[in-house]
Amino acid sequence: MVSLSVLAGCSSKAVYDNVQLNNRTDCNRVPPPQYEECIERTDKSYEEYERERKELIGGE
Fold this sequence. Notes:
Blueprint: H1 2-8, H2 12-27, H3 32-41, H4 46-56
């Protein structure tokens, strides 16, 4: 229950940043030829992500 209240207190940007950090860490586990592509997928800013997300769900 405590983890839910902590998670609820996190901003969307903080959650996004944490997910991106975890994704970059996961890139360390892929073979070297795929590493750069993996890192590039984690290079989107929160603002860019949010803009694209809003476009997909109807421009809220």
